[in-house]
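Good morning,

Attaching, inline, the backbone tokens for the sequence recovery test we're adding to the shared suite. The designed sequence is right after.
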């Protein structure tokens, strides 16, 4: 058996530390006589090195807070300096996300008014961390007294206990959709920068509620506007199908039940070259971002699963040169990304959301001490999450694109570009704020 005894040779071949001579007693000391223990004082079962509340590499966002705590929010680190920014830039999307908007959303009453407390001076970002806070003003922790001891079926109650051995029993804690306030606030910043920088637009809408499916081709992605999506409470740009979707939600709402649906998201004018080969492909980053949202169960990109029904000749997007000399594709089954890198076409994706887990119907479950019981959940919950998920999806897509834009600029545009193949990135247009860059 090989010995684990260390030799007594001088460390790094030197007998001096910081220019001082080591005493003769220490030099004569055999290292093999020193017992070194690598046993940690902390039991291994307690050595958990996982957080999960920070997203992004260059444009980093950390969210904080619980659904029935003092408040929620985010810290944005890496935001470029000298960008005009105020609470109003975030509040617009926070208002689209907030509860109590209509009869088909949770009746919880929150204004979700945000406050920036750092990172902005005289209306401009300073390049330092931006702290955004939104207080909770309509908490009803007592609504969750039964759920503190009994697990809600398909909710995160049980798995949070399994992971941490403790959890916030008032509402869903960090698993609540209220956590997404920080994402939406940060997404508002990212959306503004992307719009200033490249005219990039990110628009999401509801394309399915339960069995009501908006037919493909009904919505023109080239001309889709925010006003079309916001024209009704379900956020479907087609009025006829919007009414059908609202009726489907109403039908289960009055029964104390819930339904799921699909949110479609498009990106217009995305800069070319975003994303990296192999592990960090742009659609992979978008998938992770979208699937990190509460209640998500599926992600499709471009042609999605329908593309499996086509042959290569039917599915391929043929190239051509447009009147401006730009390389384009005649079709867009690739969804605006090829080889994991954006090609300048419209990026499109679809995200599936499950029915809300917390419902007003009796369900069989178990308690925290493993006794079987029945549960009728109280509290205020969305009968269908997809109308409020629209700004959440837009926010996560914006965070990915912002992060990838900064990575692209630092890696591929640090030195002069190959003008025959690469397009120059447009510098920020900040004339409105009289800020020079």
């Amino acid at each position: 058996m090989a010995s684990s005894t260390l030799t007594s040779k001088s460390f790094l071949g030197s007998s001096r530390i910081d220019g001082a001579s080591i005493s003769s007693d220490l030099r004569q000391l055999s290292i093999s006589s020193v017992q070194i223990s690598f046993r940690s004082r902390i039991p291994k079962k307690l050595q958990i090195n996982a957080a999960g509340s920070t997203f992004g590499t260059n444009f980093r966002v950390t969210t904080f807070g619980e659904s029935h705590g003092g408040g929620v929010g985010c810290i944005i680190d890496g935001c470029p300096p000298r960008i005009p920014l105020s609470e109003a830039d975030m509040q617009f999307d926070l208002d689209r996300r907030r509860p109590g908007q209509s009869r088909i959303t949770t009746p919880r009453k929150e204004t979700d008014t945000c406050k920036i407390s750092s990172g902005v001076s005289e209306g401009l970002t300073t390049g330092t961390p931006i702290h955004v806070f939104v207080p909770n003003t309509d908490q009803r922790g007592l609504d969750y007294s039964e759920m503190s001891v009994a697990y809600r079926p398909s909710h995160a109650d049980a798995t949070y206990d399994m992971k941490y051995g403790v959890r916030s029993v008032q509402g869903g804690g960090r698993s609540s959709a209220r956590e997404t306030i920080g994402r939406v606030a940060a997404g508002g910043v990212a959306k503004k920068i992307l719009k200033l920088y490249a005219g990039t637009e990110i628009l999401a809408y509801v394309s399915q509620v339960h069995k009501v499916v908006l037919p493909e081709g009904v919505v023109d992605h080239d001309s889709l506007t925010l006003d079309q999506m916001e024209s009704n409470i379900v956020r479907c740009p087609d009025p006829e199908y919007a009414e059908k979707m609202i009726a489907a939600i109403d039908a289960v709402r009055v029964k104390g039940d819930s339904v799921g649906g699909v949110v479609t998201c498009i990106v217009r004018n995305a800069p070319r070259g975003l994303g990296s080969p192999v592990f960090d492909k742009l659609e992979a980053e978008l998938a992770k971002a979208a699937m990190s949202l509460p209640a998500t169960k599926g992600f499709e990109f471009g042609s999605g699963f329908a593309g499996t029904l086509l042959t290569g000749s039917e599915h391929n997007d043929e190239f051509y040169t447009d009147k401006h000399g730009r390389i384009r594709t005649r079709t867009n089954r690739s969804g605006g990304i090829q080889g994991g890198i954006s090609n300048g076409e419209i990026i499109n994706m679809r995200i599936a959301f499950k029915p809300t887990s917390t419902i007003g119907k009796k369900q069989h479950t178990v308690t925290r001490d493993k006794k079987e019981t029945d549960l009728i959940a109280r509290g205020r919950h969305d009968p269908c999450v997809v109308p409020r998920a629209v700004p959440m999806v837009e926010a996560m897509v914006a965070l990915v694109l912002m992060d990838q834009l900064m990575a692209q600029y630092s890696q591929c545009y640090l030195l002069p570009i190959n003008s025959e193949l690469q397009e120059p990135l447009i510098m920020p247009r900040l004339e409105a704020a009289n800020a020079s860059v």
